[in-house]
Design brief:
Layout: E1 3-7, E2 10-12, E3 18-25, E4 33-39, E5 46-51, E6 58-60, E7 68-73, E8 78-83, E9 92-100, E10 103-106, E11 110-114
Parallel strand pairs: 2-11
Antiparallel strand pairs: 1-3, 3-8, 4-5, 4-9, 5-6, 7-8, 9-10, 9-11
């Protein structure tokens, strides 16, 4: 049974940091490209960052470049999103995603709120 379980979300003030984690099970984690998406109310879900399976190449949305860092630990089947210098516009539900060929899996999502 495939599971992606996110943790680490919460309420922070602008300028603060959070680290999201996503623990995977039920599939060969090391073979999958892992991504973080986010969705704000009234907006479409958007890609935040992704990291490839073997080479670990990363890609970021322009809005988070220089502030967010995606990483993975294949030995722990876990992908992380370090979020620094958070802004109110980063407020969203963040989703973990795994993709390999035609297979795609989603986590349940976790709320991140940036507010003073």
């Amino acid at each position: 049974q495939v599971q992606l379980v996110e943790s680490g979300g919460g309420l922070v003030q602008p300028g603060e940091s959070l680290r999201l984690s996503c623990v995977a099970s039920g599939f060969t984690f090391s073979s999958f490209t892992m991504s973080w998406y986010r969705q704000s109310p009234g907006k479409e879900r958007e890609l935040v960052a992704d990291i490839t399976s073997i080479a670990g190449r990363t890609n970021y949305a322009d809005s988070v470049k220089g502030r967010f860092t995606i990483s993975r630990d294949n030995s722990k089947s876990t992908v992380y999103l370090q979020m620094n210098s958070l802004k109110p516009e980063d407020t969203a539900v963040y989703y973990c995603n795994a993709k390999f060929s035609w297979r795609m899996y989603w986590g349940q999502g976790i709320q991140v709120t940036v507010s003073s």
